[in-house]
Specification:
homodimer; 15 strands; 14 helices; alpha/beta
């Protein structure tokens, strides 16, 4: 039984060195937003930046802004700014396209590299519980290559060592599971993959800006991720791709659009790949959405990922403790690891009426989300979530459960 | 020798029924913008719309906006709104991803359909002068399929009939050439392709919103295009893909992301394609950029493409006449067809110092652009270009040429 009180939470907020960062965000009144793992909140700066891009760069400077406003350089410039959050180096990251498409690019390149090294490797190992689009893109790619590739889906991280065999070309994992918040040991699994001759591709959708990531220390091969979750880049904002310098010369994929060409404005009728991370680009990018990514990244430069991680663990520990203490007796089951080193920045509980309970929470201003099956998912973004928010959210959850104030016949909507 | 005067041009503007539409755009003072074929001008409504999406939909409604603000439905809703401009039907168009990526999708599907129908067809016919990214994407796709596909690049439209042989799988053309403004006869070439057993894929980047297009009347098979040129959707705004109802059941491509899944929120670990045009989607879309596309499309609903075409031809005729009359004696050569039915909404002239002359024009507020080799490109968007603008642009061009007021040593930048 926890002895924590709301006063204790308020005291934690007063002592929180990250507390001032909440002012960098525009958050609606009366809402406890625990869904920053799905769509990050809006940086205040994003409104002014959107107006500047639309009114001045587009409206007044028009076509000249491709050069004068640096529109062409945005993918690389944002990538360089994002790089420190994931242990990448300058010139190794671009912000571009969607996570699905970036995964397609790096997976295609990884398979091609393996095909040259050892053509017997025809298996991509991943988890059945991986975010589905990663699996779908791997299916699409391998079906079209039509060279005997197959996906091996494991049901638990424990099965990975046995699954990564001599036929494994690529180990493709999402670092933090979108449903459970389970965090893989990136360094250990990458080492295992390499020992068995496989390449390791990591999806950082629920990691970048949420947990410390050091791609170089882990010796990872490729990574992709999302900017609109913990990085607060805006709805559907372009994703990122990481190609370490050591793989850039060999990097190639079928989506060879003009932005990846060595000399795009030579307008030559034959493809010649550009140098470096430019190879991960394809076509023209959505500038307004892309530019707003910078507003989110700027905020991270006012703190450190270590400080964020410390607060994130404190928030998720507190949430787990409070729910288990104050909602005891209700059929809630924690599916997120208790071990800090296996936990992302979210907490998920199952409830037999998880969908209905979540709808009631949302109606009461506590915004988390629901994921099949029966999972209520709560994201804790240390940039703007307060300890008192955690207390208040649990108090409302307790009230809903105690009074059974949820409608189990509610029709289901869908959120990403 | 033309007898047209500036007064005549002002009279044409006074009599122009489309003149009020110019007020729908925010155009900079002191600029004659003849580059709407590269980046369309900003609809006034776009600034307010950007603020609404960023401040209210993202900032206040947060994750709920995927449903309440219709973010999920944007690709299809915008596609339906764009459809009348290209002779497409409701449920046949989505606005999504980039032109490069959409071309990859439709070309992949066209090749797969042909592979089932007649596997001996292994040639994609296109023009060497096609916009390079189309060629690059075709190269990327076919190289990775590694099944003996090859591109056949012709040097002139006249060579197309001979090139489309029994081995031709797909005729892939850009309807209006980005450099010269040459417009193909879509119906005749599609008929020819079909007679020879090929499918016809059309890139409408320089057609949509610029010239009348009737994909169904032409019996075209697939089409893609751009929203940030004549459609004024904003810098790098997502592109469109058209898949006619008759091909939707057979439509498939390797970029099978979760937005094309039959039940994306079932989160099932196996891909099952959705119905209809949804199949042309892939991953999550950049909502802010995407939403602004609607501001451009709305303006087209206040007129007709026939009225726009009539003014476009009047503008380009006037420009050709004035340049040839007033700049006679200078080494300018028209590369755009004089025949109205072979001309898009741009006029291109070569000049030995085309790059330098264009830089001088831009410095004087006449914004066109330059394309290798030696081509000065002038786009005429009838929504906001005035007849007097044409007069004034030619007057400035004449002055620059007469005085040789251009720097032939100028370093070259690049614009899209």
């Amino acid at each position: 039984m926890t002895t924590t009180t709301r006063e204790d939470c308020l005291a934690l907020d007063r002592a929180d060195p990250l507390a001032p960062l909440r002012d960098a965000f525009d958050l609606p009144q009366g809402v406890i937003y625990l869904d920053g793992n799905s769509l990050g909140a809006r940086p205040r700066a994003a409104l002014e930046r959107a107006a500047a891009v639309v009114a001045r760069e587009w409206g007044q400077d028009l076509i000249r802004s491709w050069n004068t406003a640096g529109w062409f350089d945005l993918p690389g410039r944002l990538g360089d700014r994002l790089a420190p959050l994931i242990g990448a180096r300058q010139g190794e990251v671009v912000v571009t396209d969607s996570t699905s498409l970036n995964l397609f690019k790096v997976l295609a390149s990884a398979l091609a590299m393996q095909e040259r090294a050892d053509p017997r490797r025809r298996v991509i190992v991943t988890e059945r519980s991986n975010f589905p689009t990663d699996i779908y893109m791997a299916e699409g790619l391998t079906a079209w290559l039509d060279r005997g590739y197959r996906l091996l889906l494991v049901d638990s991280p424990d099965e990975l060592p046995a699954a990564i065999g001599a036929d494994c070309a690529v180990l493709m994992l999402t670092h933090v599971n979108y449903r459970t918040g389970y965090m893989h040991d990136m360094a250990a699994l990458t080492r295992l993959a390499h020992e068995r001759g496989a390449l390791a591709v990591w999806d950082l959708a629920h990691s970048a800006g949420a947990v410390p990531v050091d791609l170089h220390a882990a010796n990872a091969d490729f990574a992709v991720g999302c900017t609109y979750k913990y990085l607060n880049g805006g709805p559907g904002a372009p994703a990122f791709a990481w190609v370490p310098q050591r793989h850039q010369a060999a990097f190639s994929h079928p989506l060879s659009g003009w932005w990846s060409h060595a000399s795009p404005f030579a307008m030559a009728p034959g493809f010649a790949p550009g140098e470096g991370i430019k190879r991960a680009l394809c076509g023209t990018q959505p500038v307004v959405s892309l530019a707003l990514v910078e507003c989110g990244l700027e905020i991270f430069e006012r703190t450190s990922i270590e400080a964020l991680r410390a607060k994130s663990l404190a928030l998720t520990d507190l949430f787990i403790d409070l729910v288990e203490a104050r909602c005891a007796g209700h059929p809630l089951e924690l599916v997120t690891p208790r071990a800090p080193d296996r936990r992302g920045s979210q907490v998920s509980f199952t409830h037999p009426h998880g969908y209905a309970v979540m709808q009631s929470l949302i109606a009461r201003g506590v915004i988390g989300d629901y994921r099949e099956p029966r999972i209520m998912r709560f994201g804790f973004t240390p940039l703007y979530t307060r300890f008192a928010d955690v207390w208040d959210a649990v108090a409302i959850l307790k009230d809903i459960l105690d009074r059974q104030a949820y409608d189990i016949t509610a029709a289901r909507g869908a959120v990403t």
